[in-house]
Amino acid sequence: MSEFIPLSVPNFCGNELKYVTEAIKSEWVSTGVAQIDRFEKGLANYLHVERVCALQSGTAGLHLAMILAGVTSGDEVIVPTLTFIAAVNPVRYVGAEPIFMDCDDFLCMDPEKLDSFCSEECNFNGEVLVDKRTNKPIKAVVVVHVFGNLARINEICSIAKRYNLKVIEDATEALGTYELESGRFAGTIGDFGVFSFNGNKIITTGGGGALVAKNSEDVKRAKHLSTQAKQDTLYFVHDEVGLQLSYD
Ligand SMILES: Cc1ncc(COP(=O)(O)O)c(C=O)c1O
């Protein structure tokens, strides 16, 4: 009989204790801690992206992705029916409404259903996709790579491109999943990608997350917004409404 493999128990068998001890001995466990910078660079290197923004949670990453995608009050966002609720809550944080889309046999959003929803149940004027039922604009689609399964992301991205929708990949459960043909990692294919390092995830920091984006300027902006939108570190001038979503 094969050995039982628990879904959510972390496996600490490397340098974890050494790094925690180093951080405690340095007396820097949040702001300016060198490990955060190392972690961001290491993750960027692994994912083959220019920049990574480390955050307090995957949920924080999804919240920021909504803001960066321009989703605001009165908009709608397409989300999968099968997911952990944290992929949907950020839609409400920015005052938008979720539209639930069916999933396929791989438990991820079904591109055929998405396509027929956009073409039959919405109007597209060349710029904005409008839900015929509510008359509200649809701005983005959240694709969740459930249990590490890669959603049919290329098909979803081409539908999204046709209807001017931003693609937010929830890769919180899929760090390390990649496309065989291209080698691209889940989370690096759409406009925004989000990872989680919660206690039950593929790697864990206890609680934590990260955001990546097709446009690395968006990642810079995520860092700014997630650290209280501080313009400078000396005078504490804030140039927009910031959030406290980072380790800083
Ligand atoms: C699909 C999905 N989205 C979002 C999250 C939220 O991540 P976090 O717990 O780091 O906020 C999780 C995990 O908890 C998840 O499984």
Folded structure, characterized:
The longest helix is centred in the N-terminal third of the chain and has 14 residues, at 34-47. Helix 3 packs across helix 7 and helix 5 (111-120) packs parallel to helix 6 (153-162). Strand 4 and strand 5 (129-131) form a beta hairpin. This protein is α/β, with parallel strands linked by helices and 248 residues long. The chain is 29% helix and 17% strand. The radius of gyration is 19 Å and the shape is globular. The chain has one domain: Aspartate Aminotransferase, domain 2. Strands 1, 2, 3, 4, 5, 6, 7, 8 and 9 form a 9-stranded mixed β-sheet that branches. It has 7 helices and 9 strands. The N and C termini lie far apart (47 Å). The chain binds pyridoxal-5'-phosphate. Pyridoxal-5'-phosphate is lined by residues 57-59, 83-84, 86-87, 144, 170, 172-173, 196, 198, 209.
Q: Residue share in helices?
A: 25-40%
Could you tell me which ligands this complex binds, including any ions or cofactors? Answer: pyridoxal-5'-phosphate
Distance between the termini: 47 Å
Runs in which pLDDT lies below 50 for 5 or more consecutive residues are none
Could you state the CATH homologous superfamily? Type I PLP-dependent aspartate aminotransferase-like (Major domain)
Number of helices: 7
Tell me the fraction of residues in β-strands, as a range.
Answer: 15-25%
Per the principal axes of the C-alpha atoms, what is the gross shape? globular
CATH level-two architecture? 3-Layer(aba) Sandwich
Structural category = alpha/beta
Mean pLDDT: 94
Which class in CATH terms?
Alpha Beta
SSE pattern: HHEHEHEHEEEHEEEH
Largest pleated sheet: 9 strands, mixed
Could you tell me the number of beta strands?
9
Cα-atom radius of gyration: 19 Å
CATH topology, by name, is Aspartate Aminotransferase, domain 2
- Give the number of domains: 1
